[in-house]
Specification:
Bound molecules: CO-5-methoxybenzimidazolylcobamide
Structural class: alpha/beta
CATH architecture of the largest domain: 3-Layer(aba) Sandwich
CATH superfamily of the largest domain: Cobalamin-binding domain
Oligomer: single chain
Shape: globular
Number of domains: 2
Number of strands: 5
Order of helices and strands: HHHHEHEHEHEHEH
């Protein structure tokens, strides 16, 4: 068994086998980042490539996503830091019009593992809902995810709502089409390319000690 088997299982939508394959790698002591980067996430990149080339269609992307999610659940408990201290509250969600939630879920899991309290608003989240949740929960951070270029403007709307109201909540963004330049353009407080980076970013914006 190898990380390549995890990669292959996702590309072949073998959602009943994935749990055992990921568990076997965990039991073998394979690094979690190796399982994630070259197995689970790497496989989704391959699925996206095939979709872009017209070799796969939406139902297959969905089956791959279900398989990936089942694999991700196996490593969820392992994402907790050993020296976790309670930190601030993070509101997280995928922006309005966008149904992609795997990256958002991974970011949420890693932030939770790092000691943040997570309020996950799910997918297709209106800018006003980010604002309301930030205000009601006195959240330190709002983290928004977008996977479609067409849904990125919803991030700008949410940032504007929160900044204009003078809430102290910091706003951070991410997702495949998002860049640091875009974060600067919409006056977000930060951007990260991946989930471990989102944890570093949250720690830098909300120092816990
Ligand atoms: Co969609 N899809 N999809 N899709 N899909 C992409 C994103 C696409 C790039 C595929 C392609 O064309 N090659 C393309 C977008 C093109 C664009 O706009 N740039 C695309 C398209 C076009 C579409 C539809 C429009 C297809 C259609 O209907 N014709 C449609 C849109 C639906 C909608 O949202 N309204 C659609 C639908 C779907 C499914 C529902 C079938 C499914 C999603 C299922 C689900 O999420 N539950 C799906 C999938 C699976 C993908 C791909 C293949 C994989 C996405 C994924 O989960 N990656 C994707 C291709 C790709 O990304 N290579 C694709 C793994 C995940 C771990 O990575 O989410 O990038 P990612 O998260 C990363 C980082 O981005 C970062 O951390 C994570 C890694 O550590 N990150 C953050 C994410 N959020 C963050 C927030 C932060 C910080 C970091 O906050 C601070």
């Amino acid at each position: 068994m190898s990380v390549q088997d995890i990669f292959n299982a996702i590309n072949e939508f073998r959602d009943t086998e994935i749990v055992n394959l990921v568990q076997a790698e965990v039991d073998a002591g394979t690094d979690i980042s190796e399982i994630l980067d070259n197995g689970l996430i790497g496989a989704m990149d391959e699925v996206g490539k095939k979709f872009g080339e017209g070799l796969l269609f939406v139902p297959e992307m969905l089956m791959a996503a279900q398989t990936m999610k089942a694999g991700l659940e196996v490593i969820r408990p392992l994402l907790a830091d050993s020296d976790t201290k309670p930190r601030g509250t993070v509101i997280i969600g995928t922006v309005k019009g966008d149904l992609h939630d795997i990256g958002k879920n991974l970011v949420a899991m890693m932030l939770e593992g790092a000691g943040f309290t997570i309020i996950d608003l799910g997918v297709d989240v209106e800018p006003q809902a980010f604002f309301d949740a930030a205000k009601e929960n006195s959240a330190e951070l709002v983290a928004m995810s977008a996977l479609l270029t067409t849904t990125m403007p919803a991030m700008e709307e949410a940032v504007k709502l929160i900044k204009d109201a003078g809430l102290p909540t910091k706003m951070v963004i991410g997702g495949a089409p998002v860049t640091q330049a875009y974060a600067d353009k919409i006056s977000a407080d930060g951007y990260s390319a991946d989930a471990p980076g989102a944890v570093e970013l949250a720690r830098s914006l909300i120092p816990g000690d």
